[in-house]
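Predict the 3D structure for this chain.
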Amino acid sequence: MRLGVLLPHRAVVIQSTRRPALDECWSVARMCDEAGLDVWVGDSVVAKPRVEPLTTLAYCAAITTHARLGTAILLPALRQPTVLAHLLASIDQISTGRLVLGLGAGWALPEIVREWEACGRVHKRRGRDLEEHIIVWRKLWSGEPVTYAGSDFKLTQATVGPLPWNEAGPPILITAGNRGEIIPAQIDRVGRLGDGVITTYLTDDDCRNLRELCEASFEKHHRPRPGFPMCVYTTVRIEDDAATAEAVTADFLSKYYGGGVNFRGLMGLGSPTSVIATLKRYEAAGVTDLCIRFAGIDQLSQLERFIEDVAPAFA
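Done. Predicted structure below.
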């Protein structure tokens, strides 16, 4: 199981919108690269503001050499698909093929609806728009001229350049099974359009169930992918005292989400031994990748402890 770390590009903005501590983000990226960990970013424009994710990944591509650079998750439907296809292919080239795309359609929450409105997009169409993005990206990434009538755009013998580093393009992991909720349309979308699945707030039993359902969906759509990637986004707080870890995490997530914290699923909260045991449960359930968000403002010290005391158990 590969381990990766969510850059604190939202955490630093929570502390200061005018002068976010961006050097902390770049330090995390370099430390992950040296330690063999991947680097992930989240996405939001106005609902949960952060340093823009794709700009961030482009910078990370320039200061790292080995880490895969992932989105957990990107919300394509907030953006125009042709422009995004060009941007993603460029980042994939800059990073020499290290880009991994975790994609989602966004929650059905009032603040998310307002975010879609702020970006001039239609929230009720977000699922269809997500699918259209993936279809259009792959057409444009083929290198062949594309003629296509989209929902609110039109391509006439259009091409983009550069193309992605690899002919297949960046791996596309599509959200399904969040919070253990199985929505058939999401499972079907993974099977039709994805290379794998990305999810959050799951138990290990939820992960086993989700893997079985996605595997069946791939088979149904004649796209078998044995051992397909399954990435879980989870939270870690390393403390010698478990109660302290839980308290720090509750406070951090309340500020991160503005309330409404969901503690469902597995989180690595407590001593290094306890964190390892929790993450090993994910590994045993067939999870191939973890995107780890550290709770708390002391991101660098948490990462240092993780690299020293937890990561070696997964080498």
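The CA atoms of residues 51 and 88 lie 17 Å apart.
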